[in-house]
Input
Amino acid sequence: MSEIFTNIPKIEFGGADCRDPLKFKFYDPERVVLGKKMSEHLPFAMAWWHNLGAAGTDMFGRDTADKSFGAEKGTMEHAKAKVDAGFEFMQKLGIRYFCFHDVDLVPEADDIKETNRRLDEIANYIAAKIARTGIKCLWGTANLFSNPRYMNGAGSTTSADVFCFAAAQIKKALDLTVRFGGRGYVFWGGREGYETLLNTNMKFEEENIARLMRMAVEYGRTIGFTGDFYIEPKPKEPMKHQYDFDAATAIGFLRKYGLDGDFKLNIEANHATLAGHTFQHDLRVSAINGMLGSIDANQGDLLLGWDTDEFPFNVYDTTMCMYEVIKAGGLTGGFNFDSKTRRSSYTAEDMFYAYILGMDSFALGLLKAAAIIEDGRIDGFVRDRYASFSEGIGKAIVEGRTTLAELAERAEAMGKPELPEPGRQEYLQSIINSIMFS
Ligand code: XLS
Ligand code: NI
Ligand code: NI
Output
C-alpha cells in the first residue's frame, strides 16, 4: 500500500506563534495539564462518514472534493482505499480512535446478506490495521436513516419487517464495534420522530424504540460488549419532531424504560444549539445526571437552522465544554469530529487543516478551562452564591427539617426579604475574558 497524502508530513506541535499551517498551534499531546497528558484529556476520533465519505454534495450541487483515494467509487477496492486513507490520516495527526456507521465502510448491497459479507471482508482489513497501529474504534453505529426503508424511522417504523432490518443492522454493527475494540455504541435517532400526529401513534413508536434498544443491550452484553450505549439527542432534521429532542428528554426516556444503567449520552454541539440550548447546557444536564458519555465535536451556525457540522472554532465554547468535562471527571467516550469541511475546502490539505483547527480549538479550550478552575474565582462565586442555604433556615430546608407552613410563618414575620446577592454576570464574564486573553 502506497502513501496517499504524499504532500502531508506527520503533524507535529509547533506552538502558538508557528506559521506553518501543517503544525499544531496548541495541541501538544505530551503536555501535562491538571496532572494528565493532553492526549489523555482529549481522546479524539475521526468520523469515517465525513472525512472519508462526504465530498461536498449539498441540496443544490454535486461533489466538489475527490474522495476516490485512487479507486473507483462504489467498489470494495474503494472501501479498502478509504481504510488506507483513514489510517494514514489518523496516524499523521496522532488520532487514536475512529467512529463509523456500517454503511460508511462498504457500499450497501440490495440484499443484506451480501452487505454483511462485504462488512466481514472490510472488517478483516480494518482489524489488520488496528493490530498494526493501535488505533481503535471510539464508537460504532448503524445507519438507520439513509435507506428508503427507514422513511418512517427504524424503531419508530410502522413496518414490523423494517424493524427486523433495523435489528439486523444493529446486530452487525455491534459485532463490528466489539471487533474494533469500540468504547461505545451510538443510537442517533435519525428518523425516530414524526411529521404529523394525524398519522402517528407517538406512544407506540416510543415504546418500540425502547424495545429495540433493550434488545441491542441484551445482544451486546452476550457478545462481550462492556462499553456504554449512547443516545445522541437531536431535536429535528431530518424529521420535524425527533423523540430524542435534547439531553433532558433523552434522560427521561432512558429512565422511563429502565435503560439508564446501560446508556449514557453522546452530546453533539450543533444538536444542542438546534434545540435552543448552549452546548454547555446539554453537557451540564448530562453531567449532573451521571450521563455524560461522549461528545460529537463540531459547531453550528446560529444564523442557520440546520446541522452545519462545522469544525470547532469558537474557543469560548470549547473552553466551557472542557470546563464541564474536567468537572465531570473526563469522558468514558471521547471527542468525535462529527464535522465536515466547507464545500469550497475540497483538497486533501483542507482535510488536515480542518482537523488541526478542531484539535487546536479543543486543546486551547482545555488549557483555558484548566486556568479557570485553577483561578478559582468562578467556582468560588457559584459556591458562595448559595451560602444562605448553609446555615439557619436555609440549612433546615436542605436537610428537610421544615415545612411549608413554617416557612410561610417565617416569611410573614419578616414582612419583606432583602434582595438576593447580585448575580454579577458582567464581572464574571470579564474574569473569563481576562483568562482567555492572558
Ligand atoms: C447527524 C448525526 C450523526 C450521528 C451518527 O446529525 O450527528 O452524524 O452522529 O449517526
Ligand atoms: Ni453526530
Ligand atoms: Ni449531527
